[in-house]
Amino acid sequence: MPTLTALYRYPVKSIHGEALTHSLVAAAGLADDRAWLVADRNGRFMTGRDWPQLVRIRAEVADATLTLRAPGMPDLQIARNAFDTAHPAQVWKDEFGAWHGPVEADRWLSDYLGSDARLLYTGTAPQRRIRRLPDIPLSFADGYPLLLIGEASRRQLSDWAGQDFAMTRFRPNLVVDDAEPFAEDGWTRIRIGDVVLRMVKPCTRCVFTTVDPDSGEKSADQEPLRTLAKHRKGEGGVLFGQNAITEIAGRIEVGMPVDLLD
Asked: What InterPro entries would the database entry show (predicted)?
């Protein structure tokens, strides 16, 4: 039976992933996943595609605070309730409302990136919605609340390319093992504990997969995107992993079995 072997969240979009042992899962995904966004002065998202050094920022999330750490920078702690000024935000073509915080956070990010930046927060009730499913709230994630990838799929990709790629390079929320490579492509609904998830769309991959998740350096050989393009080119682009939404909310924990419902 497939098993949940890892959980990751990314409190600020494009920063280093945080490994979890358990998490609440709601309609908007894992708690505090992509709840904050680095944006330009107009609120348009800035991501690791163009700013790969973002992956070297690490975050610690508490009930009342967000703490950011990055090489060469002093630690920055910000209160959640300090994000109290309405501010426009844009992720891809989605334009929606968010919350802007202290200028100290903007200055910290601008100094680290070497470019004018803002830190925005979704707030406790995201104003954004999934385009295809307008009843479902969405954080600053690209298009869907959750991304699931099979560990066997990662191993197969590594075999094809002749080099081992860390799963963190692909920025999943849920990692599942004890299944065949790309078995997740055929799943429709799964249960993990009390949580029921529905797969809604294969994940289209981009140049961000070529960024080393620890160093922030882009691969000179364009891997693993080059190998993915040879083996996983589908309608709409290069595919790896499955986007998912929550049908029944609850709590999940690493080590739980994954029941295939459909």
From this structure: MoCF_Sase_C (IPR005302), MOCOS_middle (IPR005303), Pyrv_Knase-like_insert_dom_sf (IPR011037)
* pTM, to two decimals: 0.97
CA distances from 71 to 74, 161, 172 (A): 8, 31, 24
| Domain regions of the chain by residue span | 3-28+140-260, 34-121
Backbone angles phi, psi at 102, to 5 degrees: -65, 150
**Among 10, 14, 32, 9, which residue's Cα sits nearest to residue 117?**
14
Burial environment of residue 94 by CB neighbours within 10 A (0 to 12, 13 to 18, 19 or more): middle
pLDDT tens column, 130-185: 999 999 999 999 999 999 999 999 999 999 999 999 999 999 999 999 999 999 99
Q: What are the residues whose beta carbons fall under 8 Å from the beta carbon of 195, sequence distance 6 or more? A: 25, 246, 248, 249, 250, 251, 252
Residues 6+ positions from 241 with CB-CB distance below 8 Å: 147, 148, 149, 153, 170, 172, 184, 202, 203, 205
End-to-end alpha carbon distance in the chain: 14
Fold of 3-28+140-260: M1 Pyruvate Kinase; Domain 3 (2.40.33)
The residue assigned the tokens 């995107």 is 225
Please tell me the distance from the alpha carbon of residue 103 to that of residue 36, in angstroms, as a whole number.
Answer: 15
Q: pLDDT for 212-241, tens place per residue?
A: 999 999 999 999 999 999 999 988 899 999
Phi–psi pair at 111, nearest 5 degrees: -65, -40
